[in-house]
C-alpha cells in the first residue's frame, strides 16, 4: 500500500504504534475516537463496504479504548468486527483472512497494566509504514468533521465468536504434519495476557502435557511478575514440575522467552539460530540469510556464518526486521528480545508459532531443549543507558572521536553500538567482545565522554 504524499514527522506514533498511560493523552478515549475517525478515512478507498477488525489484550483500559475506537471507525463509515482478547499476530492474520481494510490491536505489549497502546495493520496484515502513520496524524490535526460518514453510511458493529478458533487452527498448521508433542511436558506462562486461552489449548491439542500459569487475567495483573519479561517464574515452574521446556509469552503474545529443562534462559538469538539451522537442513530457509537487529549477539553472527548462513542486521524494531525480510525474500528474522518473524506463517512476530518450531526440533530429534536451544556461546555483551537533557550528545565531535578510537581498539574482536532511544531521552551504548574486560573498557570510555557532553 503506497503512502500518501510526504507528510511530516510522527509525534503520536512511536516505534510500535501509539502507547501511553491509560486515560491520559494520547491513551485516552478522546484521542482513540479521533484516531479511529482518521484511520477509518485514510483506509476507506473504493466503493466497497470497508471494515476493520479490532482485538485487544486483557488490560482493564481496553474496555475504554475499544468502544472509543469503534465509535471513531463507525463514524468514518467502517464496519467493525470485534474479536476480544487475542494475540497481536492473530489480528494481523484476521485482517487478511477476513478481507479487512485495517486491523487494530489494543495492547501495550510487555508494559504494566497501567499503560495501553494501539497498533495498526494494513490490509496486507503488515504494520504501517512511518509515512502512513504520519499521514494519519496529519488528518487527526485537521478538520475531520466534513469527511465523516453521512447517517445512512455509518458503520455497523458485530462480534466474531470463532476468531480464536481461526487463529488456533492457523497456528497448528505451522507445526509439521505427522509430528506430535506427545510425551512432552510443557510449562507455559501466558502473562495473564492475550494468549491466555489459545496458547495452552494449541499445545494440548498437539499432544503435549501442558502446565499453564498466567492464565487468570483480572484486568490489572497482565505482565505482573510473569511472562517473558519475568522469566524466573517459568524457570521455577519448569524445575518444580520437571517439565521438558518452558515457554513464556508477553502480554500481547508476539514474543517469547524459552527456558530449557534445567531452567536456563534462552533468548531470541538462540531461538533464531536453532530454527535457522533446522530449516537449512530441511531446505526450508529462503535466500540463505537471516535478519536480526544491531542488538543481536556477535556469537549468533559467527555461528550462522559457520554453517553457511548470512546475517542481515537492521535497526531495532520488529517492523524493520520484517521490511528487510520482504525486501530480500527471506523467511526468518527476529530480535534478541524474542520477537521472531516467520513469514511462511505470518506477517509479524508470533511467540506461539516460534515456540512450535523449537518444539518440532525437540520432538523430531528426541534431544533435550538445552541441546537444541544452545547453538552458540554468546560473546560478553554490556548495555549502558545514558540519560540526557535533550539534543544529540552522541553526535558531538568529541564523542565521535572516542567512538572511532574504541572501534579501532576492538577491531574484529568485537563491536560497538551507540544509538539514541526511540522513546526516552537516553543514549544507549552497547559493546560486545571476546572478553569481559574489553567490553567494560569499551563501554566505560564512550559513556564517560557522552556524560561530559550531556552535562
- Identify the strand order in the major beta sheet: 1-5-4-2-3-6
What's the pLDDT, averaged over the residues?
95
Q: How many whole angstroms does the radius of gyration measure?
A: 22 Å
What's the structural domain tally?
4
Number of strands: 18
- Number of DSSP helical runs: 14
Strand composition percent: 15-25%
Molecular shape: globular
What about the largest sheet?
6 strands, mixed
CATH class of the largest domain: Alpha Beta
Write up this protein.
This protein is α/β, with parallel strands linked by helices and 455 residues long. It has helices spanning 29-42, 62-75, 88-97, 130-141, 163-172, 198-205, 232-241, 268-282, 298-306, 318-328, 351-365, 369-372, 397-410, 436-454; strands spanning 18-21, 51-56, 79-85, 102-106, 115-121, 157-159, 185-189, 209-213, 245-249, 256-259, 265-266, 289-293, 310-314, 332-334, 340-342, 381-387, 414-420, 426-433. A 6-stranded mixed sheet has the order 1-5-4-2-3-6, with helices on both faces. It is globular, with a radius of gyration of 22 Å. Residues 1-8 have low confidence and may be disordered.
